[in-house]
Specification:
The protein is α+β, with helices and mostly antiparallel strands. The chain is built from 6 helices and 23 strands.
């Protein structure tokens, strides 16, 4: 079969044709094939001829692949081998039976990287859609969590130390009388077995009753009333057995500052040895308290430490474990005696300085004296001062020149807004002391000095 090779300038037909497709234009120069996928200078046996194939005689049309005969038809198409590699290794000649390793390695590397990335994405997508139960689990050793925060900072809470120091000296009281049964709290005052509590706690047993005291070591012992003061809502009882008890440490309420931390200890609702903490919310807070038919006027410490029924008589202590007050009253939102009362963050304690003065009298004489001026005052809530309703004959008030209708606005320079504040302020002094009143009378201001009298109660 003869073959025709195009001469210079003659067109060269693309040996690859597709059914109905256009023929590729010639891209080579004279004597060059239209395309060559091999690297330059890599010609070897099996290269494409530089002439077009002759017309086929096997009956197939031009729409099929048509290649010139040659040894390359004996083996699959593949990239050419690098120079110097042939059959039998480097420098070999003849048809190659090996696949060149460098191009193949590069292609495998690229395919491997792409496949790995695609596989990772596929696994991640499947893993995200899988339920937790279907995911593989890995057994690991749990790591213990760091200790959580405690009250007072990163170290041991100061309240813990206060509770350890004070709880052994705090007691719980069960009081039974002919008409009532109440519970309360108290604390050991001295090494003679005296316990301080509120008067309204032991009041039911004042005439014919029984007091049972639960100690911190679990013992229950009886107690007797030594003395009580309804005016200050304080009382002292003596334990029948006080062996092994330690008295409480006492502080000074005059040094108490608003905002300082405090701890309240007692038996709210019968829950013995309950510890709560808070701050001093205010000082010199005029408060009325007391039991049935008796009213106490207290120049109190106010605290937000939780105080509930049953806390009465228990100690309010500072962070050094020193008693600075006796818990006595709480403010409630109840409007009647039948409504449930409880802590709303406003509790009141009798300052320890007043407690010490009164308790000393109760232990020594069984009763306590409190200062008076010998005049009746209005306890209606006002804002312009305490109005004198009646001055008793021969009283300190009369001797000082007070008259009915006078309005007292200050006591030793401290403003008073109503009769309750006047009584509380007066009871912060002792009988026999002299105080100065600022008085309004018929639109005129005057100052009067009054020597305080005394009364037992």
């Amino acid at each position: 079969m003869s073959e025709h090779f195009p001469g210079p300038g003659e067109p060269y037909d693309d040996p690859v044709r597709r059914p109905g497709g256009p023929q590729h234009p010639a891209v080579g120069g004279p004597g060059e094939p239209p395309w060559d996928w091999r690297p330059a200078g890599s010609a070897q046996q099996g290269d494409f001829p530089s002439s077009p194939p002759a017309d086929r005689t096997d009956g197939r049309g031009d729409d099929t692949l048509s290649f010139p005969p040659g040894p390359w038809q004996q083996q699959p198409l593949r990239p050419p081998m690098p120079p110097g590699y042939g059959p039998g290794g480097p420098g070999g000649a003849g048809p190659s039976s090996r696949v060149p390793w460098l191009p193949v390695a590069l292609m495998c590397l690229l395919l491997g990287l792409g496949g790995g990335a695609g596989g990772a994405l596929l696994v991640a997508a499947i893993d995200d859609d899988a339920s937790p139960a279907s995911r593989p689990t890995t057994s690991t050793t749990p790591t213990p969590a760091a200790p959580g925060p405690v009250a007072g900072g990163q170290v041991r809470s100061p309240v813990v130390a206060v509770a350890d120091a004070v709880l052994p000296s705090v007691v719980s009281l069960q009081v039974r009388g002919p008409d009532a049964q109440v519970s309360g709290s108290g604390f050991v005052y001295d090494d003679g077995g005296h316990v301080v509590t509120n008067n309204h706690v032991i009041e039911p047993a004042a005439d014919d009753g029984e007091i049972t005291v639960s100690l911190s070591d679990g013992r229950e012992v009886g107690a007797q009333i030594v003395g009580r003061s309804p005016s200050y809502d304080l009382a002292v009882i003596k334990l029948d057995d006080f062996s092994g008890l330690e008295p409480s440490a006492l502080g000074m309420s005059a040094e108490v500052q608003v905002g300082q931390s405090v701890v309240a200890i007692g038996s709210p609702l019968g829950l013995n040895a309950t510890v709560t903490s808070g701050i001093i919310s205010a000082t010199d807070r005029p408060v009325t308290a007391g039991g049935k038919g008796e009213t106490s006027y207290i120049n109190a410490l106010q605290t937000d430490a939780a105080i509930n029924p049953g806390n009465s008589g228990g100690p309010l202590v500072d962070l050094q474990g020193r008693v600075i007050g006796v818990n006595s009253a709480i403010a409630t939102v109840g409007q009647s005696a039948s409504e449930q009362s409880g802590n709303i963050g406003v509790g009141f304690s009798i300052p320890i300085d007043q407690v010490v003065s009164t308790v000393k009298q109760l232990i020594e004489t069984g009763q306590a004296e409190y200062p008076v001026i010998g005049a009746q005052v209005s306890v209606a809530t006002t804002s312009d001062g305490a109005r004198i309703l009646e001055v008793e004959a021969g009283s300190p008030a009369e001797e000082a020149g007070l008259e009915n209708g006078d309005v007292i606005t200050k006591v030793n320079g401290e403003v008073v807004h109503d009769g309750v504040e006047l009584i509380v302020e007066i009871r912060s002094f002792s009988p026999g002391e002299t105080v100065t009143f600022d008085v309004k009378r018929s639109g005129q201001n005057d100052n009067l000095d009054v020597v305080l009298g005394k009364q037992v109660g």
